[in-house]
Amino acid sequence: MVAGVLVVALPALWLGTRGLTHRTGHYSSDVGADRVSLVLLVTLRALLLLLVLVLSAVTLVSAVGALVRDLELPSLVLVFFVLDLLLATLVVLTFGRRRPRPRATPAAR
Q1: How buried is 30 (Cβ within 10 angstroms: 0-12 exposed, 13-18 middle, 19+ buried)?
Q2: Which pTM does this prediction carry?
Q3: Do residues 49 and 12 touch, judged by C-beta distance below 8 A?
Q4: Is 62:77 a contact under the CB 8 Å cutoff?
Q5: Which of 4, 11, 2, 3 is nearest to 85 (CA)?
Q6: Where do the TM regions start and end (predicted)?
Q7: Which portions of the chain are predicted below pLDDT 50?
């Protein structure tokens, strides 16, 4: 579990914070509606990243604590771990991806 959180969830948090305010798609001609949609988009993305952060912290603390004290891990931690991995995958596949650079126009011959 610790390796899964370190390999999947923490890089997803890093990529997600980089792509938090990036926006793709069509823009509205109405400036007010465009601003409202951007605020809503950034707010939802921030809440998703906060949820991934909290789930990662709970999973890491519980797993390391269970290893150190040699205790059985509660079953709810496994549910948090799977939810954390699913949300981290959602972050990476939606707004955590790197954007391809636009192709340069070929030089005039």
Answers
A1: exposed
A2: 0.81
A3: no
A4: yes
A5: 4
A6: 43-68, 75-96
A7: none
Enclosing H/E stretch for 68: helix 31-69
Q: Tell me the HSE value of 18 on the side-chain side, using a 13 A CA sphere.
A: 11
Tokens 């954390």, residue located: 84
Say what the pLDDT of residue 25 is.
Answer: 60
Instruction: Kindly give, in sequence order, each residue whose CB lies less than 8 Å from that of residue 83, ignoring residues fewer than 6 positions away.
Output: 55
* pLDDT given for residue 19 in this prediction: 83
DSSP class of residue 28 equals -
| Percentage of residues of the chain with pLDDT beyond 70 | 79
What amino acid occupies position 64?
A: V
Q: Long-range contacts for 60-68 (Cβ within 8 Å, ≥24 apart)?
A: 60/2, 60/5, 63/1, 63/2, 63/5, 64/2, 67/2
Tens of pLDDT, residue by residue over 92-109, are: 998 887 766 666 666 655
